[in-house]
Amino acid sequence: MLRSFPRSGKARFAVLALLLFLAIACFISRPYLYDTVPRHYSSNPDQPSDWWAEFFTRLESTRVTAGTARIRGKAPEINWKPGTKAARPELLSLSEYNEDKFRESHASFVGQLPLFASHLRYNPDTTGIVTTAGVANFGQAVSLVLMTRRAGSNLPIQVVLDSSSPWMNLVCAETFPRLNASCLFMADRWAGIQHLVPKFKGYQWKSISIIASTFQNVLFLDADCLPVLNPDPIFDQGAEPFASTGLITWPDFWTQTTSSLFYKIAGDIEAPPLTSRTSSESGILVYDKARHADSLLLAAYYNYNGPKHYYPMFIQHGAGEGDRESFLQAALVLEALRKKGWYKPPTAWMKPGLGVKKGYWDVKKIPKVHGRSVAGKWRGMFMMQLDPTEDYRAVMAAVEKAKKTGTETKRQARRRRSEEGPPSPKQDEAAAAAAIVEGDFLTDSTFLAGVGNLTLEQNEGRVMFLHHNGVKPDFTRMLESKSGVIATNEERKYVRMWGHPGWLMDRYGRDVEKLLWEDSMQIYCQAELLRFKNLQKVCAKMQEIHKQLYT
């Protein structure tokens, strides 16, 4: 005969707690329960939420329980350059107890990755562009879609939404399909498991959106990042660096400020020298989710525990604190642990040949800033990021040039030093370049520190992305004075967003700004949207400014 459920509050709570603990323990200890789950998304984007239940349960079961990471002061903002003499800032201190908590959490999650990564779902052999947006910035996503199509891209676009509104729903249902773009409503994906889903903040949505997309090969763009060259060739068959890496990241301006404690916590791995690379931005990312399922999920772990733990540890309250180091750091950590023999990457589901070539390429070209000067006041508009295939070509050309100008072996270098004294910087550079092999470029972001200051001759006409980290390209907010979309000069006449169009015509053969303005007018002035009063005002103002500036 079954005993009745305890009547006292404490007893009921104890039983419920025990049942919950056993359920989670069973889930974690019996991963084979998910072995029957299809490994990829079907063509139907409205998938059952079983994988998301696994995702959130694994993340929560390994959540960092240490106290909030506290930073003493603020990391300095030092622009990166080769050979920088800056010292790694050490502003984070952890008690032995909190350090152990970090270690336990990180090791537990990494230990689950080989199996967990094999469950990552996507449609095999598909490629597309992904961004994330919501009520606060959906207008930026509209600009991204329009600019992507004007750049010549034919890739499908998915906009992962964290929230919605009536006008957004209309655009998603009626306008985006004509542009081969679609909206993924995460509230639908997570139906029935809302109790497992935490309340995410802005930065945390990036890893979620890449994971939620149905594509295997993903170009992720912040909603304020506009392509001006066609990005589709990044994914061409055999195109480097994607073909040999499956992961591409882009640089920010500053020297790295990640605390050395992070590398201890991640598995007592060696912190890379500050001369090796700049800090990383996260507004542009390229992933092959087959090859990098594990590093993508580790990045999701860093972001899940980001605001109170990993974000301060990565940036130490320096410039742009947030998720920007999480993606490349995840790849660096797993590669370092693999070399130590502590981690075996999952490869069972990969295709032979190209599919098992795995690395990471961090673009070497430092971005440049473009701004607008009005009435003697300058305001930054966007940072200009290079085509990664051009960056790869320039690095390879520089190394080959260095090899041809002086290719001495290490033995020859020692003999010459003993006979002639210390080498010149150019001799050192050439000797180091001669010793580099292909793998150094594809799996080690620190190789430039060993080569020296190679002269990289990138074609700046191959700037592919305008990342609007200054003024946001959101026409729905153009009437807000602080948005910066509209500006007037001393004569109270409107001025263009990106300055004189000559440089756009010279570089891209078209007036990119004018086309964005006109394409946006077609969206915001369509009859279906003019029933929204704010968009009526937006349409009228756009027409007024277009008549003055662009006709």
From TrEMBL:
Pfam families, sorted: Mannosyl_trans3
Membrane-protein topology: Single-pass type II membrane protein
Alphabetized GO MF terms: alpha-1,2-mannosyltransferase activity
Metabolic or biological pathway: Protein modification; protein glycosylation
This protein's GO CC annotations: Golgi membrane
Keyword Membrane: yes
Keywords for this protein: Glycosyltransferase, Golgi apparatus, Membrane, Signal-anchor, Transferase, Transmembrane, Transmembrane helix
Subcellular location, principal: Golgi
GO biological process: mannan biosynthetic process
Signal peptide residues on this chain, from the entry's feature table: none
PROSITE patterns xrefs: PROKAR_LIPOPROTEIN
Subcellular location as annotated: Golgi apparatus membrane
Disordered as annotated region, ranges: 403-430
Family: Belongs to the MNN1/MNT family.
Protein name: Mannosyltransferase putative-domain-containing protein
Species: Chaetomidium leptoderma
